[in-house]
Amino acid sequence: MHGKHGHEHQMHTGPTSSAKEQHTGNGSSRHDQHAGHSPEMFRDRFVISLLLTLPVVFWSAHIEELLGYTAPRFAFSDWIPPALGTLVFLYGGLVFLRSAVGELRSLRPGMMTLISLAITVAFVFSWVVALGGIDADALWWELATLVTVMLLGHWIEMRSINQAKGALKELAKLLPDEATCITDGGTASVSVSALRGGDRLLIRPGERVPADGTIDKGSSSLDEAVITGESRPVQRGAGESVIAGTINGDGVLEITITVIPPRQMNRVSSGPAIQIVSPAFIRPNCLDQIAVIGSR
Fold first, then answer.
1. For residue 242, what are the β-bridge partners?
2. What is the DSSP code (8-state) at residue 208?
3. Pairing state of beta strands 253-257 and 213-217?
4. Per-residue pLDDT tens over the stretch 4-61
5. How far is CA 220 from the centre of its chain?
6. Which 8-state DSSP code applies to residue 131?
């Protein structure tokens, strides 16, 4: 009977893998604007760009007029904004330019494309003005501050994403390594990674629930504090749902799996809390969607 159950697991693998591949394919079809990036990279570029931006702003004629001061004048002082503004564009703005290339290659322009367009236009226009091609005010301080502020914003965003992903991985660690599977011949201990949707599990008192499911038989109080924040045990009975990672109380439960456990996936992608947060990592934001609509 156990062999038959193993065969059923094998039969489950096909559709599950296909669904997983389809999900992965859908996610990878959209260019990840933060592929290869890290909070440390954005932090370092932000700090250096900020140090270069301060003199650009200080020696900007527009800022001098706005704040009513006169910056010290010396040989080549007029070239401080063009020189440092160029460094900010090449060093701080390079990350946006590279990401914009990836977005355009995938025909999915997004936030990086918008930022790159803005700083490139400002950079070219300012050099045309600096070289006497147009009688207008250069945009060096606007260029430098835009790059710096964008680096700060993406640094904060990357930190938030990494912290959220770390929290989700910790949730996945709450799952047990093995589960008691109900078979035609009784019960069998199987690895959580081998579980499939539709499998029936036996949850003994004090055990952690290995996968999201629906109670078929029995009732018990479950400690859901780590998952939902509920401080008191919650009573669950037949027909009600249980959440992976929660701790069973003093009752014995028989459940049917409705969601594949997170450890089977290459990335944490299952469970109610994880399903709520994970789409934010891969779903295009509002500006991404507007840019895509505009490009059609």
1. 213
2. B
3. antiparallel
4. 444 444 434 433 333 333 333 344 434 455 666 788 999 999 999 999 999 999 999 9
5. 36
6. T
Cα 9 to the center of its chain, rounded Å: 32
255 sits in which H/E element? strand 253-257
Q: Which residue has the tokens 């954005």?
A: 42
Torsions phi, psi for 213 (to 5 deg): -165, -175
Q: Nearest Cα to 261, choosing from 168, 202, 192?
A: 192
Whether 85 and 54 have beta carbons less than 8 Å apart is answered as no
Residue that has been written with the tokens 């207008």 in this structure? 136
pLDDT in tens, 249-277: 999 999 999 876 554 443 334 444 455 55
pTM of full prediction above 0.70: no
Q: 247: which strand partners?
A: 208, 223
Query: Residue 18: how many CA atoms within 13 Å on its side-chain side?
Result: 4
Parallel, antiparallel or unpaired: strands 220-223 and 247-248: antiparallel
SS3 218: coil
Q: What are phi and psi of 255, to 5 degrees?
A: -125, 160
Stated as kind and residue range, the H or E segment containing 190 is strand 186-191
> How far apart are the C-alpha atoms of 213 and 260, rounded to whole Å?
9
**How close are the terminal C-alpha atoms of the chain, in Å?**
57
Tokens of 188: 């069998």
